[in-house]
Design goal:
The chain contains 13 helices and five strands. It is mainly alpha-helical and 276 residues long. It has one domain. 37% of the residues are buried. The structure holds zinc ion.
């Protein structure tokens, strides 16, 4: 196992690469808000490192936390969340990965922990912006692709952190159910959502079980704030005002079904019913 200090150095180097390559949301209010939500969860977690959150201007629904507390949240995640508790739930899951040091563990296991070659591997060569967008974070994501056990652990810890911070832990599950429903309607944005954290029926069921058996019902939960709505609206305005950048549309687009596809059946799995 690598030391916490070495882990932070590693994370910082990766974070610098991400910030160089990705388009960041610089708006101070949006950053302050997302950081505030993150810090509330961090204070209620086992994390041993301070967290700093940056927002990536990307409508894909995703978030990832690098070792050492360097946390990136896509604008798409904030826009897709229906309320603050959903945003908090997903962030708590990512914070749990860092608290449990999953990336460090898998790096240790794979023995490919090579700081010098990492940045090259990541975005190597004189790739253009479009190409980078395409390959994007493929390599760091492969470092952040955890096994089933790690995902389960992050789910359970994340639910506990969100709950301890006062949020309704059930919103984490509701968020993924809503995403799956959207996936069925073939919203292209969601197709790539959480490529590193596939939410399977098994995980949803486990999360529901965890909530029902291990988190005693509270009288009141924090579900959302007016600030969440304001920030979401602000982010939406920011996205539309710079909707074209280098010929690439930033605004979400609906993928239309090809006329030939109309008889094709959805290949998605069964829908889970919530026990009430
Ligand atoms: Zn995960």
């Amino acid at each position: 196992m690598y030391s916490l200090e070495r882990e932070q150095t590693w994370g910082r180097q990766l974070a610098e690469q991400v910030e160089k390559q990705a388009r960041m949301v610089k708006d101070a209010e949006v950053n302050a808000y997302v950081n505030r939500v993150a810090q509330l969860i961090v204070r209620n977690s086992d994390a041993q490192v301070p967290f700093s959150v940056r927002i990536i201007d990307d409508t894909t629904v995703n978030a990832f936390a690098l070792p050492g507390g360097f946390f990136f949240v896509n604008s798409g995640l904030v826009l897709a969340a229906e309320n603050e508790a959903q945003l908090a739930g997903v962030m708590a899951h990512e914070i749990a990965h860092v608290a449990a040091r999953h990336a460090t563990r898998s790096a240790t296991r794979m023995e490919i922990f090579n700081l010098a070659s990492f940045p090259l591997l990541m975005f190597g060569g004189p790739a253009g912006y479009a190409a980078r967008q395409l390959v994007g974070f493929a390599v760091p994501m492969s470092y952040l692709k955890f096994g089933r056990d790690a995902e389960r652990e992050a789910d359970l810890l994340g639910l506990q952190y969100a709950y301890a911070a006062g949020y309704d832990p059930a919103e984490f599950v509701h968020f993924f159910e809503a995403l799956r429903a959207q996936q069925k309607r073939k919203l292209s944005l969601v197709a790539r959502a959480f490529a590193t954290h596939p939410m399977t029926d098994d995980r949803i069921q486990r999360a529901q079980q965890e909530i029902a058996t291990r988190l005693p019902q509270k009288d009141e939960y924090l579900v959302t704030t007016s600030e969440f709505d304001e920030i979401k609206a602000r982010l939406r305005r920011l996205e539309t005002s710079q909707s074209v950048d280098g010929g690439q549309a930033v605004a979400p687009t609906l993928r239309r079904r090809h006329p030939d596809d109309k008889n094709r059946k959805d290949e998605d799995g069964p829908v889970l019913r919530k026990p009430n």
